[in-house]
Amino acid sequence: xxxxxxxxxxxxxxxxxxxxxxxxxxxxxxxxxxxxxxxxxxxxxxxxxxxxxxxxxxxxxxxxxxxxxxxxxxxxxxxxxxxxxxxxxxxxxxxxxxxxxxxxxxxxxxxxxxxxxxxxxxxxxxxxxxxxxxxxxxxxxxx
Length: 143
What we know:
Elements: H1 3-33, H2 36-67, H3 76-104, H4 110-134
Protein name: Membrane protein
Keywords: Membrane, Transmembrane, Transmembrane helix
Organism: Saccharothrix mutabilis subsp. mutabilis
């Protein structure tokens, strides 16, 4: 990948990843209040902001891994980061969005589930950020 293209993809990856992290922090703040109106706002964020940012982070990460020396399966940190991102996107798609809708509809216990989901998501994104910075564990057997 040429330097300008690589830097453009890195920029897109950082913007979508940091955006995903930021919206998750916002969702965590909204979920901690526990008001139905806030859960309604989270429904919009989950559908129109969180999911597109997650998919964007996943897509740009794959492009970068395949287009740079790091590779998708050459280094353990890249492979773990990819797996965690896939888990986060799937959880957002099938769990967070329905949980937020349940909380907005007043289903008992759904608010606590959403709060836990936000904490888990935040932890995943912070681990991914640390992996990007420290690049631990060396190469895989395919590297």
